[in-house]
Amino acid sequence: MAYLINCIFVSMKIKILFSITLLSGILILPACGEQKNKVENTENVAEKSDTTNDDIMPRMHEGNTESMWDAYVDIKNALAWDSMSLAASEAKHLSKLTMTTQQNKLKNVANWDKNQKLIIEHTDAIAVAKDIKEQRKHFEMLSQAFATTIKDNGLIHEAAYTQFCPMANDGKGANWIAEDSVIRNPYFGAEMRNCGEVQGNKF
To answer: Is a pLDDT exceeding 50 seen at residue 51?
Structure first.
């Protein structure tokens, strides 16, 4: 009788151990699957991140007439919207681009030495100017030097428009260059933002 009870007890113990082992295996398998999925997902995210960086992150270039043009337009628009701080920031950027522009990247180097000095001189002045009126004064001189640079070297991907305000420069009038035909007057901003005329788009 004792022997029979002992056999039954051993049999139940084996079944219990078997059930625990089986249950543990069932619980472990999803966990492993989840871990595998996490690893795969992490790898996918890394791949996507690499692709995103390659496709979206801006690439830094040495200065050239195209990147200089973008910076000039940003200064013009900042002044048109009365943003002294943005004009100063973009002026610093244009100054750096102008310093790093190499002659072998230009179509015509005849006037470059002179214009390079003028562009750097007036962008540096815009960057440290104490008021927006002073910034606008130097922007007029910057525009003259920049117009010559465009005439000499052209713009590959953009149209450029000469615009004129007869009331700027103490009534003597002043030009600037714009990315489209819409008047955004950098010399008066909100006071007379639409004052001016398009004189042409030929350089």
So the answer is: no
Residues 6+ apart with CB under 8 A from 173: 164, 165, 166, 167
Measured at the alpha carbon of residue 122, what is the angle toward residues 120 and 127, in degrees to the nearest 5?
90
The alpha carbon dihedral of 143, 144, 146, 147 has a sign of positive
187 in Cβ contact with 164 (< 8 Å): no
Three state DSSP letters for 84-108: HHHHHHHHHHHHHHHHHCCHHHCCC
pLDDT computed for residue 35 by the predictor: 37
The mean pLDDT value for 38-56 works out to 32
Task: List residues bridging with 178 in a β-sheet.
Answer: 161
Measured distance CA(169)–CA(66) in Å, rounded = 28
Residue found under tokens 């337009």: 73
Quick one: residue 46, left, alpha or beta (phi over 0 = left, psi -120 to 50 = alpha)? alpha
Q: Rounded to whole angstroms, how far apart are CA atoms 76 and 111? A: 23
Residue pair 145/156 in contact by the 8 Å Cβ criterion: no
Instruction: Identify the pLDDT of residue 203.
Output: 53
Whole-number pLDDT of residue 48: 33
Tokens read off for 4: 């029979």
Q: What is the pLDDT of residues 98-157, one digit of tens each?
A: 998 877 778 778 888 899 999 999 999 999 999 999 999 999 999 999 998 888 887 666
